[in-house]
Specification:
Helix content: over 70%
Strand content: under 5%
Number of domains: 1
Radius of gyration: 15 Å
Number of helices: 2
Largest sheet: none
Structural class: mainly alpha
Length: 65
């Protein structure tokens, strides 16, 4: 039981960290776009989308428990 709880806590911590990363990448992309740096904006957007995908995967794992 304790192992399951620590695993669940670790997954929630990972989700929170990924969400923070996603938000920072989104903000970075917005700033890059405002400065006319479309390459950096696109890279940030791609990385933010990847973080969102990983969040969905982890949430799916938690919901299936």
């Amino acid at each position: 039981m304790a192992r399951e709880e620590s695993t669940e806590q670790a997954l929630w911590s990972a989700i929170r960290a990924l969400h923070e990363r996603q938000m920072l990448l989104h903000q970075t992309g917005v700033l890059a776009r405002r400065q006319g740096d479309e390459a950096a904006a696109a890279a940030s957007s791609t990385q933010a989308a990847q973080a969102a995908s990983e969040i969905m995967l982890l949430r799916g794992l938690l919901e299936s428990r």
